[in-house]
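Researcher: Following up on the earlier apo prediction. This time include the ligand. It's zinc ion, with the SMILES given after the sequence.
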Amino acid sequence: MSTFYVTTPIYYVNDIPHIGHAYTTIMADVITRFRRAEGYETFFLTGTDEHGQKIEKSAAAQGITPKILADRVVERFKNLWQILDIRYDRFIRTTDADHVAGVQHLFRRVLDKGDIYPGEYRGHYCVSCEGYVPETAEKSQSGNKICPDCGKETELLTERCYFFRLSAYEEPLLRFYAEHPDFVQPASRMNEVISFVKMGLKDLSITRSTVKWGVPVPDDPEQTIYVWFDALSNYITALGYPETTADFSRFWPADLHVMAKDILRFHAVYWPAFLMAADLELPRGELIHGWWLKDERKMSKSRGNVLDPHILLKHFPADAIRYFLMREAPIGADANFSHQGFITRINTELTNDWANLISRTGGMIKRYFNNRFPGKAAYSPTEDELREDYLELENEVRAFFDSYAFNRGLERIMEYISRLNRYIVEAEPWKMAADESLQPRLEAVLKTLVRAILSTNTLLAPVIPRSADRIRAFFNHDSRTFGWKDPGESFDVRDVEPLFPRVDPEAFFAEETQSEHAEPSPKETTMSEKPQTPEGIATIDEFKKIRMVVARVLAAEKVEKTDKLLRLTVDTGSDTRTLVAGIAQYYTPEELVERKIIIVANLAPAVIRGIESKGMILAASDKDGRPYIPIIPEETPVGSIMR
Ligand SMILES: [Zn+2]
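Model: Understood. Below is the ligand-bound prediction.
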């Protein structure tokens, strides 16, 4: 069996988990699940980087040991990964005994080879960033250099340390990149790495005497191994290095290191050089993603705009967050996070399109066939087409996922889901249900829908695994491999909680007041609100702006805790949407279902009693405000435009 080994960076325990960590880790989890569905044996590694001066200092400030501080932060990471359905094979900590032993072994091996040598380092050291700043850095008024990364003053230090002979690897690295042009993805990042190496590599100091909280240098305990040599080694120590364990021989070299762009150089230059020096194989690939911006600004602790995934998790299932992060960001580029964008994306694609398709289909199977098909389906070319379309979709999506273009793959899946929703509207199963002679057609339509849903579900499963499990349970059909599914005749469609309950943006913003730059929340409008345009003459252009279409009411129900409002689900010919209308005192839900009505289709959505109403039903109104819904000739096609 082919293997696939995926890693995230190990996260620094001086930080608390935020959306950036979640993005990298979700991506690695999605890749792992996708490879597993393709038949690979996978190993997924994540963990924490726990050494260094910063940790030592924060722990001292809190009056605890660095290990206790690390233990606490580790719990927070592990909890979040559990909530987000991240299924790693190992959570490595750089304080783990086997890691410490592995790093020391690697150090000794490279030392014995002569690529680590003792020396003296003098430089301007930034305590906060745990690194020396370049000679070109600016000076402060007191004459100390300013750290270009954090803006703090540096200290001039001279210390005994060990160097890694990075300069010797300039040529070997360039040769390696030339032979493996896809080593770093996307290609723009590969070019960045090549330019950096071509500018020349200096030897790297890899130990400190100034840092006590770290892995001691073998036979020189005054020195500790510096952060990167320690941290990067986790990718091999996690598999058992230096022992040639089963895991190590099976999974090394790693297939993919996933990371954000700010640590590219360490992974694409230092790490391969360390491995070459130790005569170990190099990783096969590195995937570099961009940053998440919050409302177009970089998230940072100092700005106080770091996004905490727990806030979203109070309102949305983990799958919604996983979906949004994978759906929204083109790989390698920065992406923007706004709560409004998030809510709209989830409500539209997961709630309206995907969950609605499933509940409608399940509902019809139950209603029309009592969960058991008679086995007399009469297929038409349209059903074959849907199957062909699916197989084409699957090829495309797998190719997109294979190249980590998750946003493109998910976009294609959503197009197909829209196609399925349109198919329901076009096939009009509710009409077939009313006509005994059309039963075989009805069966064909519903079977095709179930097959398409279960098949599409396997493509979505790596991204939204929990809802994928629920959909399998809903249709009582457990299959995880790709391909067109055929679940047979019998069904046990179960009653389940809604997959992606609609989140009311108004309620979300009311609860999660964003203290620094509040986002505008959608304006709540009511049915009685008067149009804001001045009374008087309307031009033909003004009239044409209003899109009125014939729609069919698919479902109607009273809005809970109100006596005036009805919630209508209508088919507009191009989509299925929800409207809220203040007509409950005059019309029962029963007399509206299946009826054709006219709706204003392009009205700005309004949130009414927590329900997003997309459009308005047209009715005449007498002087007491009693509504009269016009009668539309039954033969009028759904979607016809009023003009
Ligand atoms: Zn700094």
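Model: The chain has 21 helices and 25 strands.
Researcher: Noted. I'll compare it with the apo version next.
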